UniProtKB/TrEMBL annotation:
Residues 22-287 form the ABC transmembrane type-1 domain. GO terms for cellular component: plasma membrane. The chain crosses the membrane at residues 21-40, 52-70, 130-152, 158-178, 239-265, 277-299. One of its GO terms (molecular function) is ATP hydrolysis activity. It is found in: Cell membrane. Residues 344-582 form the ABC transporter domain. The keyword ATP-binding applies. It comes from Streptomyces niveus. InterPro entries: AAA+_ATPase, ABC1_TM_dom, ABC1_TM_sf, ABC_transporter-like_ATP-bd, ABC_transporter-like_CS, P-loop_NTPase, Type_1_exporter. The keyword Membrane applies. Keywords: ATP-binding, Membrane, Nucleotide-binding, Transmembrane, Transmembrane helix. This is ABC transporter ATP-binding protein.
């Protein structure tokens, strides 16, 4: 959003015309109290009824003449608010397009509801709030000018009574604006955090139950609710102080004027002047003051919060970067990895999805030893699938080197890559043909015995039997997502490639089936009982329990990725410790492999 100074500086003529029309409106305020005082002092109280009526007629004429100035005020107001809204809409559209180009990882079936809200609801909030503030502040300023000039013209002593509480109340109110805006922002943040936390618990309840993390999730959600309660109490206290300020500025001047009436009369202030002063207070100053304070306290605070969020939302989104994650030595668990050339080496890899987009992976280092089972965990969109694509050779990094078995993946044919690694994505591919054709797609020369062994090891025998056996014709449309994934896993298990990458390839399986599949791949063997080319397994984890089954875990958290064992990460990674905190408090049985 353009800065206020730059925005207003480009519309000086509009502001001058707005001030001119408002000045005419302040003349009506001045005449209202002054004419009433003169009608009393020079007319009715002096026995000159005609003179009194004449002064009242002048006051009435000033009221009737307020229509054209008000029309001019609204015409100039439109020239301020509509360009502001148009600028916000254009900026929101540009940012939504930039987000789609620079952050493709966040582009999925769900639309950017934040952009839709900014284009519709939030821009209207800003326009309406800004228009209301301009109207009310302008009305108070020029009504105050007319009223104070009128009080000075009637009797300077009146200002000694009215001005101090008015200034004190306004100063007290202005002092509460920024703290109240901050309190309201904190309240909205806490409220959104509660909604997000509850939504995350609802969406991930299967993982929470599978990990036994119900108590931990309840504790964290309870803390969010407590924060929301505290922020609402703080907001209520500032609202109460604002009410006190309104009373000081709005009601105290009238009370002091009534109390000081005997003293004012002794100073020579006339009855008409007192009546005029009350008119200025009750008919002009206090209504305008009440409207301004209400607008600034409600619409003004809301405007500050919405504009702040609009500016945050329109900032160029920078996905969490992945600094260098140095592969540290870790003890082998259960199996003894080979100490020869590593299965995978990622050296100083950086990758972005466009020349102007921020890197998804930045200067990443990773070493996976032969025979290792590695899990990759982290928030959605952090770069886990990108890492799987880079390692498998499907995505060419912008900088750095990827080695499989000590040889670079770049420049290799599709068949050469297929001989070195197999990647199973979340959306499993199954084609029309026999079950056998689907399972032998990556290794057509596998024997029937090897096929039966793979199906049995992964627990797919009931599925193959239901489909009619290995030679039955397969209709992909008749399969569920979980059944497709199970067949794709059997296909990958039969592959002779030493490296297996499972990119959330078990997300549609139940936890028990997922654990069974990961153990099978971790101990991946053929009928002769030997490990397939002393390979490795990399799992982009869908469930947190996958990390417990791995030898080491790579945590991509957007700040400082960590690579180590489960026990090491509980100490070195705040994100990992937060996800698995309940295991630190209660003993956990060993996780089977």
């Amino acid at each position: 959003m353009p800065s206020a100074r730059r925005f207003l500086a480009g519309r000086k003529r509009v502001l001058i015309r707005l001030g001119g029309w408002s000045l005419l409106e302040s003349a009506q305020t001045f005449l209202g109290g002054y004419c009433l005082a003169q009608a009393l002092d020079r007319g009715f109280l002096a026995g000159q009824t005609g003179t009194g009526l004449l002064w009242l007629a002048v006051a009435a004429a000033s009221i009737l003449g307020a229509g054209p100035p008000m029309r001019g005020v609204f015409a100039q107001l439109a020239k301020l608010t509509e360009p502001l809204r148009d600028a916000l809409v254009r900026r929101a559209v540009r940012q939504a397009l930039r987000r789609a180009v620079t952050d493709p990882a966040r582009t999925d079936d769900r639309s950017d509801t934040g952009a839709v809200s900014r284009l519709t609801h939030q821009t209207e909030i800003v326009r309406d709030s800004f228009a209301g503030l301009v109207l009310t502040v302008r009305a108070f300023v020029f009504n105050a000018v007319g009223a104070l000039i009128g009080l000075l013209a009637l009797a300077p002593e009146l200002l000694l009574v009215v001005l101090p509480p008015l200034v004190l109340g306004i100063a007290l109110f202005l002092a509460t604006l920024l703290p109240m805006a901050s309190a309201q922002r904190d309240f909205l943040d806490a409220d959104e955090a509660v909604a997000e936390g509850v939504g995350a618990v609802s969406a991930g309840h299967r993982d929470l139950v599978a990990c036994g993390a119900q108590a931990d999730a309840a504790e964290r959600t309870g803390r969010l609710i407590e924060v929301a309660e505290r922020t609402s109490r703080v907001l209520a206290r500032w609202a109460a102080l604002r009410t006190v300020a309104l009373g000081v500025a709005g009601q105290l001047p009238v009370l002091l004027l009534l109390i000081a009436t005997p003293w004012l009369l002794r100073q020579g202030v006339t009855t008409g002047a007192l009546a005029g002063a009350l008119t200025y207070l009750l008919q002009a100053l206090l209504p305008a003051l009440h409207s301004m304070m209400t607008a600034l306290g409600a619409a003004g605070t809301r405007l500050l919060v919405v504009v702040d969020r609009f500016q945050d939302a329109t900032a160029v989104p920078v996905p969490p970067k992945v600094p260098a994650a140095v592969a540290e030595a870790a003890r082998p668990l259960g199996r003894r990895p080979s100490r020869t050339v590593p299965a995978v080496e990622v050296r100083d890899v950086t990758h972005a999805y466009g020349p102007d987009s921020p890197p998804v992976l930045e200067r990443l280092h990773l070493t996976v030893r032969r025979g290792e089972h590695i899990a990759v965990v982290g928030p959605s969109g952090i770069g886990k699938s990108t890492l799987a694509g880079v390692v498998s050779g499907l995505v060419a990094p912008d900088d750095g080197t990827v080695l499989l078995g000590g040889e670079p993946v770049t420049g290799r044919t599709a068949q050469d890559l297929a001989d070195r690694r197999v990647l199973i994505p979340q959306q499993a591919y199954v084609f029309t043909g026999s079950v056998r054709d689907n399972l032998l797609h990556l290794r057509p020369d596998a024997t029937s015995r090897e096929l039966a062994h793979a199906v049995g090891t992964l627990g797919a025998e009931p599925l193959v039997h239901r489909l009619g056996g290995p030679d039955a014709v397969l209709d992909p449309r008749s399969l569920s997502h979980g059944e497709r994934q199970l067949l794709a896993l059997c296909r990958a298990y039969l592959s002779a490639a030493p490296l297996v990458l499972l990119d959330e390839a078990t997300c549609h399986l139940d936890p028990a089936a997922e654990a069974h599949a990961e153990r099978a791949f971790a101990e991946r063997a053929f009928n002769d009982g030997t490990r397939a080319r002393d390979g490795a397994l990399i799992v982009v984890a869908h469930r947190l329990s996958s990390a417990r089954r791995a030898d080491r875990v790579l945590v991509l958290d957007g700040t400082e990725p960590r690579f180590g064992t489960h026990e090491e990460l509980l100490t070195s990674s705040a994100l990992y410790r937060d996800l698995f905190g309940h295991w630190q408090r209660t003993p956990s049985p060993p996780v089977g492999r």
